[in-house]
Amino acid sequence: MEPISYITASIGTISNTFIRKEIIYLRKLGMEILLFGIRKSGEMGVDDSGLADETIYLYPLNILAIITANIQFCLSRPSAYFKTLIRALFNEETNILNHIKVIYHFFTSSYFAAIIKNKKIAHIHAHFPNSAATVAMYAASLSGITYSVTLHSAGTHKVRSMAALRQKVSYAKFLICISEYTMNYYDNLFNCKSKTFIVHCGIDLDIYEKNRKQSVFRSGQKLQLICIGRFEEKKGFGYAIEACRQLAEEAVDFELVMIGSGSLSEPLKKMADLYGLGQKIKFMGSCSGNVVAHQLANSDICLVPSVKADSGEEEGIPVVIMEAMAVGVFVIATRHSGIPEIVRDNDTGLLVPERDPNAIVKAIKLFNEDDTLRNRCIENGRLLVREEFDIKKNAMAKKKIFERHI
User: Fold this and answer.
1) Which residue pairs from 287-290 have beta carbons closer than 8 angstroms and sit at least 24 positions apart in sequence?
2) Structural domain containing residue 127
3) pLDDT for 266-297, tens place per residue?
């Protein structure tokens, strides 16, 4: 198979750990992959794979290289160049800033397109339909190859970073969605199901089997709760803290560990202090994969209170659910986006409505009281993750898609 390129906004972030794992396993399957990124991550000590260091970044901008590349494509491939330029100039964005941003990405994409042409890359694959996908779309058009996009979250048509979304979906050779919910969401917007494939995100089960939870929870003992993820609106972590306030008022013995960082870090900490939960909620910040696995193995319940954000943005299927189930931790999550495809109510975990701390409390009490439910969900969750969310299986599925459609 000819080499392909992967492009992300920033491959070195904690939230993109699963992408790095995917690339590693695709390479183990024999795929040759060149890595591009928009900019380096500011998160230090997150990537131990070395992939971020080998990635070619757009920023800081090399203005001379960008100008040279535009001139070269204008002269060597004038038809493709001006056709792509016209598409950029007349993009669908009515917001003037977004409109200009899309045009800007056309001109900067020539830098990657020149490298792609020189390296004889056959296809570009973008993770997320953000600026990386815009650059992929124009770089592919300039260099005369195809591109594809993995679509993770739903609700993105209102998010400013998703400018020219219709164009990116329309011109893609194929799309990969991480859930049926995501596929149906985009199909309703753009009628694109015929070129869409579902491939779940996956985890390395070997890592989590080594950290499998050893202790068995007994009704009435201290509850160890955990929340893991970016501290952003769609994660809904404030509702987990609200639920903890109710647990404290009812004298339920518990501790909540919160792992992550983001724009809501300080507001969430202030919220916990305001409710007098400073001794019961532990904020650990961003942590390495080993620390996360260790904390999960010492937890009883993983809370995933995701919500639809005011921007319209939604989750895909949070990887933390797969991790928790693989380790043997019970999951309580909201009935949100693609989550019910992995958290099957009363079968692999418990589902609650969005923005409903009372329902979270009831689910926690049910876990505490019902041994049969607890054991059934933990075992079924482990089996489901092994069957459908094994990164080795899913990397192979993705490789086959690339082989058949490039």
Assistant:
1) 287/259, 288/45, 288/46, 288/48, 289/17, 289/207
2) 4-202+390-405
3) 999 999 999 999 999 999 998 887 888 889 99
Could you tell me if 11 and 123 lie in one domain?
A: yes
Percentage of the chain beyond pLDDT 90 is 86
Distance from C-alpha of 36 to C-alpha of 48, rounded to nearest angstrom: 18
- Is there a single domain that holds both residue 227 and residue 238? yes
100: amino acid identity, one letter: I
Q: What is the pLDDT of residues 222-257, one digit of tens each?
A: 999 999 999 999 999 999 999 999 999 999 999 999
Query: Phi then psi for 174, rounded to 5 degrees?
Result: -155, 165
Give the mean model confidence (pLDDT) for residues 199-217: 85
Asked whether residue 209 falls in the same domain as residue 197, the answer is no
CATH number at residue 19: 3.40.50.2000
Q: Are 230 and 15 in contact (CB under 8 A)?
A: yes
For residue 148, give the H/E element and its range.
Answer: strand 146-151
138 lies in the same domain as 230? no
* Nearest-angstrom CA–CA distance, 275 and 367: 24
pLDDT in tens, 112-126: 999 999 999 999 999
Residue 203 DSSP SS3:
strand
Alpha-carbon radius of gyration of the chain:
22
Please report where in the chains the tokens 């969005």 appear, as a residue. 354
The pLDDT, as a whole number, for residue 2 is: 93
Domain count, the chain: 2
In angstroms, rounded to a whole number, what is the distance separating the alpha carbons of residues 329 and 343?
12
Q: Quickly count: other Cβ atoms within 10 Å of residue 349's Cβ.
A: 30
